[in-house]
Specification:
single chain, 471 residues, alpha/beta, Rossmann fold, Alpha-Beta Plaits, 5-stranded parallel sheet, 22 helices, DNA-binding, transcription, HTH_AraC-typ_CS, Sig_transdc_resp-reg_receiver
Length: 471
């Protein structure tokens, strides 16, 4: 997904350009907006967009000056000028300064779409080749892919890495992690990248990142050194969890391996299970208090937040409740500000389900309301959908919606969306030449590894194997 920044001193112009076309469908993500040249330049340094759409006449710094100064930045940027002035001199000067297009206000959807198509082709052509050996090795580990990865490490200049080992690092956020020395990088999501570094460089870079945290990132996770390629995937998973530690600490930062208090959490969850089964309000509150204290002491990770959420929901299942489970860290982060916001929402959920039950709603037959919900989900399955969001949109109890899905469709909302997404992914793998990562993002999954695991679970094949069988 290419990153775009929109710059105009009139906010309505920015909003109209954002809403005019489906940016995501064209392969773009709007990562920021600015209302003057100075702020735009600062955003360009921080967010490192691939494309900047800029007005010409703006306070403090004109669009033409912004292009001049932007082209001196280390990160290459393509510029598109948007202006209300249909004067050849402006267009000529903009092109001479490096703009690749000149669009007039008011915007025309076809014109902007054409510009995005042109930009996508230019950016794709300039994009460095992905670390395909690492990708293949992680998706289908085996001797052949192991040898290819060894070759790639050698080409990158790793030398005899078996002495000190390789360190997996994961960076979360739209910013860039500027690695030095030999490294292999693999982008595994719209805002996530995996790096393999030699242990010596990783140690030096960790000190630099702690002293000056890279802008645009939320978290950097650094796993322990590994000396066996068979441990690469485990190391990446560990670094991934550490990179999301900001969800617990509420602070952007660098997080390395630490000892977590799993046994204490297990005791709290056992107390929680007993308290929910016995419908004891004081005991439930005490269990949540104990878990909150563990998170407050930073003795737990996002893995534990994930565990707390899903186990609490499973305890409610035993009472006949039908809340949806979560399947990835990204779902937690999109749903809650941090671990404490999640705990508050869970405690409120449990409290609601401890209250006297409302009169049961009949779900013997389909109804128009559910047909509307089903049609909406079927049309918008690529978007982020939830029971709570559908509840607010269609004015229906979220538990009732969940019951209807199980009764009328035969599976949960999450399962239904996953099935639609994987079916669409199969179509794209057969028809398009997009990368697997790009296809994952198109269907609504921002994490490459989660998508490939789910695809294999539902089809019996990895996306690469499935694509290899097409005629």
């Amino acid at each position: 997904m290419h990153k775009a920044l929109i710059v105009d001193d009139e906010s309505w112009v920015v909003e109209s350009l954002k809403d005019l076309v489906d940016w995501e469908r064209h392969g773009f993500e709007i990562v920021g907006q600015a209302y003057n040249g100075a702020d735009a330049l600062a955003s360009m340094k921080e967010l490192k967009p691939d494309v900047v759409f800029t007005d010409i006449r703006m306070p403090e710094m004109s669009g033409l000056e912004l292009i001049q100064r932007g082209r001196n930045l280390e990160h290459p940027i393509l510029f598109v000028v948007v202006s209300g002035y249909a004067e050849f001199a402006y267009a000529q000067k903009a092109i001479s300064y490096g703009a690749i297009a000149y669009c007039l206000k008011p915007f025309d959807e076809m014109e902007i779409s054409g510009v995005l198509l042109k930009l996508d082709k230019m950016l794709a052509a300039a994009k460095p080749a992905p670390a395909s050996s690492l990708l293949h090795f992680l998706e289908e580990p085996g001797e052949a892919s192991r040898l290819k990865l060894l070759e790639e490490l050698e080409r990158a200049g790793f030398g005899d890495w078996t002495v000190d080992g390789i360190v997996p690092v994961v960076a979360v956020g739209p910013g860039d992690l500027h690695a030095k020395g030999p490294f292999v990088r693999l982008k595994t999501g719209a805002s996530k990248s995996v790096y393999l570094l030699r242990a010596a460089e990783a140690s030096a870079l960790e000190a630099e990142w702690r002293e000056r945290f890279p802008p645009g990132l939320s978290g950097i996770g650094i796993a322990g050194a590994i000396k066996d390629l068979g441990e690469v995937r485990t190391g990446i998973d560990a670094a991934d969890a550490l990179a999301h530690q900001f969800f617990v600490t509420r602070d952007c930062g660098v997080y390395a391996a630490q000892t977590f208090r799993q046994e204490e959490l297990n005791r709290c969850l056992a107390d929680m299970s007993e308290a929910i089964s016995g419908k004891s309000g004081p005991a439930i509150r005490q269990a949540f208090k104990g878990i909150a204290e563990l998170f407050g002491s930073r003795a737990l990770s996002i893995r534990h937040a994930f565990q707390v959420y899903n186990m609490t929901v499973s305890f409610l299942f035993k009472l006949g409740q039908t809340e949806e489970t979560l399947y990835g860290y990204e779902q937690l982060i999109r749903s809650y500000r941090d671990a404490f916001d999640m705990l508050a929402a869970l405690e409120a959920l449990v409290a609601r389900n401890m209250s006297p039950a409302e009169p049961a709603l009949s779900i013997e037959t389909k109804n128009r309301n559910f047909n509307s919900i089903l049609q909406y989900v079927t049309q918008h399955f690529r978007q982020e959908l939830s029971l709570q969001g559908l509840s607010e949109q269609f004015y229906m109890n979220p538990s009732y919606i969940s019951q209807l899905f199980r009764k009328e469709v035969g599976e949960t909302l999450t399962g239904y969306i996953a099935r639609l997404r994987i079916q669409h992914a199969q179509e794209l793998l057969n028809e398009d030449d997009d990368t697997i990562q790009e296809i994952a993002e198109k269907i609504g999954y921002q994490d490459y590894f989660y998508f490939t695991r789910l695809f294999k679970k539902m089809t019996g094949k990895t996306p690469t194997q499935y694509r290899g069988e097409r005629p």
